[in-house]
Records
---
Amino acid sequence: MPIKRLQISGVRNLQPLSLTPSLGVNFIYGENGSGKSSLLEALYILANGKSFRHHLLKPVIQHSMDTCVLFSEIDDNRMGTARLGVQRSRNGEKAIKLNGEALQSQAEASAWLPVQIIEPNTFKLLSGSPQERRQFIDWGVFHVEHSFLNQWREFKKLLLQRNAVLKKGEPDWLDVWDKGFVKAANAVNVARKAYIERLLPVFEHTLSRLDDNLDIQLSFYPGWERNSDLIEILDKQRDRDIQIGHTQSGPQRAELRIKTNGINAADVLSRGQQKAVVAALKLSQGLLFQQETERSTIYLVDDLASELDETHRFALCQLLEDLKCQVFITSIEHNSISDQWKPKGSKMFHVEHGNITDTTNTENE
């Protein structure tokens, strides 16, 4: 679902812009602080409603502006064409519109724009909290299983209700809530587990192309003891749950375990090897999404030259080209990547002091 046209205003140091990007690879180059990452950040906000650089959106809006506005024209080979727009204000107000009609949730916009980001903080996928890995799993399930969002929302609602009962210390009510809680938890767990099983062979193949010296094992932990019924676990932990005031076991504790030779990969792999593993995970999700939906992911790759060595960088570029998806990739020097990788139909954009110029024809002369 490539973006055919993009308009941005009010984002960080970017000047108001209107771009017609390549439907394939877009190289974005310029000095540090010029606005390269801000362009990717705007695309990410358009797709996900949040920034990958800051947990708050307020710093994204230009100091002299009250709002930022993002607009795109999308051409999806399965879902059709659409105009997607997002407006975010300093006071927290937001508006999301699809073809002029207001959307009620960010999830509706995200379904139109499946976006993956590869940037320095992405590598928390290995070294960060279990929440990072749960979000990774749920991105994949959400985009291939239409029922998952409602299943997840139902589970979250029941989890909040159960925790409220625990905090009040009213054990008699737990029997009322636990049956529904377990049913919703199992639905979420089944979807997650099936997704990881399908992802595993895709990941192994992708990783072998990035670095065939790495032996990585993925396993899914559901959030409670394997081969045990959740209802029995909840019964055993009831007194402790009441004491601490929240539910210890369930999908909210799920984890994707990433190991090499039985040891957590983050503890033994070099920084470069960790980067290769995370890149393989991200690319595998895009490939599986493509296989199961006949749609493609948009990849945002920020400062690739600093994240991977030359060998891994070239292998990643080849994998992206094989995916035949839209890519926005930044670097300081215009030739740091494009001299080695020249995909057909690619475009080149120069960023300077927040101004973005299409230099495709100039660079090709």
---
Amino acid sequence: MNVRTMIDIENIRKDFPILKREVNGYPLAYLDNGASAQRPAAVIDAIGHYYRMEHANVHRGVHFLSQEATRRYEEAREQLRVFINAAHDHEVLFTKGTTDSINLVANCFGRKFLAPGDEILITAMEHHSNIVPWQMICEEKGALLKVVPVADNGELEADAYAQLLNSRTRMVAMTHVSNTLGTINPVKAMIALAHERNIPVLLDGAQAVPHMAVDVQDLDVDFYTFSGHKMFGPTGVGILYGKEHWLRQMPPYQGGGNMIKTVSFEKTTYNTLPHKFEAGTPHIAGGIGLGEAARYLMQLGFDNIRAYEHELLEYATEKLTKTEGMRLIGTAPNKAAVLSFLIDGTHPYDVGMILDKLGIAVRTGHHCNQPLMDRFGIPGTIRASFAFYNTKAEIDRLAAGVERAVTMLQ
């Protein structure tokens, strides 16, 4: 049985209403999944049902709707616990997304544990959201930011990573999968190496959870972050997983309702986990929708998703590398379904605009990876990022569109 049959791609496409759209008179070919994926009807319906039939504030009311909304919201948390195989649901925090999660850890961990001269270790392939928060807390605390270099093929330099770990390193914060290069980093081995020195590790999993099974207990990771909108769920919601050991020690990030037990003008007592870090009324519909997105992915099966997306990656690589003057950025042997490339004599924005006229959505620019672009000496790339609802026919259109752009621009 081939992969296409196992995941039944034609029926899967029917789950996504937006894929029926036309853009500029052409069927939409949506190849910008690394920026934000589309939503299946199951997620849209779950959000709509909540607003139509279940809406009330959570965790506070004794009336029926409040109790029902609370139950649905906490059921979503449990679904997400299962999704990443966390040991406890109180280790699963709802946030606004990956950026919010990283800022939470940088601030709460940094305020508690960072001192002048300490070091935070990141990599040269990080998204800006896993650079800037650490720069900010390092500047505040007098700590230093250290960077693991990237090799020419887009892999991290393992020897440099091992050498940079030292007695001053207080945190390793790195991406699980590069949003620009597609590189899947050997995070389990890197976590183990850090733990030999009792250094905690945060992983940016925004580009990992849509494409592969993530088991935070197997990885033994201390913090894991991801966003709903990249995994076929709502915008404005995401998850921070944190080991209970660390979450109990860290002070809360924000103050307000729900994160407290008692408040007086003299003293506030904080709530238990996970509510200690969830101040204010949450994105209830977003949490419910995110739980539904996790359920949808688990029903498809990550073995099927990875196999089919790898098939797409190989097909796209073969098709696009036939274009004269095409240069791939990121050729690591272990990659997610992302192709970043340049065409000699053209600018990424110009190619992207021509593709858009043909109904093909790709991303152009630096992809919030400016230091990585500087590393390769380029202004940006054209990035096609695939999902399990994409087809080889769409890749054929992409390849033909690139050829047309080359003819027009060179």
---
Amino acid sequence: MTTPEWLKPGIYGALIGAAFIAIVGFTWGGWVTGSAAEKMASEVAEDRVIAALVPFCLDMSRTDEARVEKLAAIRETSTFRQRDAVMEAGWATMPGAEEPNRALAQACIEGLELDAS
């Protein structure tokens, strides 16, 4: 079967138009792949969970009998080691968890700085 000569420009135009729409959609239109959408949703969910757990961390720091000593130790450490100091203090370990959460420790530091001022 032979295609008519007038059909070829229409087919080429449709292919070029589809490629153009896909390029524009993914670069400026905000389209994302399924895996990118899952990654973004996972990051947002983790951020929200950490934000929800910060009050527990701050409450654990307020009710700790050795609060003054631990806060002094946290303040004495260098800025990039403060997260480890909060984890060692036990304030970033949620009940039922075996290990402290690094992201929670970092968020707790920010809350402690606001709380301490």
---
Amino acid sequence: MTKPLLHIEKLVKRFGGLTATDNADLSVKEGKIHAIIGPNGAGKTTLIAQISGAMPSDSGRITFSGHDVTKMPMDERARLGLVRSYQITSIFGRLSVLDNIALAIQAIEGSSFRFWSSARSEKERYEKAQAVAQRVGLSTRLNHLAQALSHGEQRQLEVGLALASRPKILLFDEPMAGMGPDETERMVRLLDSLRGETTVVLVEHDMDAVFKLADTISVLVFGKVIASGNAQEIKDNPSVKVAYLGDDFQHLNQSQVTP
């Protein structure tokens, strides 16, 4: 049996008397899109922060690509290929789309701002940046300032910045938040196009998007993963039905299972 790319065992995070993640277990297969859903306050964002290294865990273990990264800082995890795309867009607004991506590539490859720096290396970097921009649907916005982009385009740029780091796995926390229907559809197509190219872990409230995208869905309730499976298995799971009593579960049932 193939080992998961990311494996989480009994992960715990407490804030005083509040337990945000409570012995959470999760396994993510390489090349797949794995969604994490759950009611508000379930601990989803905390779990993503623990996986990325933005927040230390009180106990438990995180294994990524054969490495125990439980106590590893965020930048070291990123160098291994474990990359988080933030819920609040983090871009340089006064720089162009192309410059934003080129800087992200430079951060991975190392600075060439030296007296005898190679003009060819700079040209190659910007050629790579153009390719990334095209990959995320921003090839017509190369010279636009990032702050002038629409909200959806800024999120596309954020995906580009993450892809520039050549990740093995990308962590997304509500990438469709604040988007209109057209922007959401573009983001769904973009994330779907990453399938097989990189592994994706996705926290998202938009159930339509989740069921279009996810190969596997895990349900987090009160910090515990109560169920994992494909779309139909999650819809049919009695524990999930209890967790989503009311309008949320009604919408869960009405969502499309297949793209």
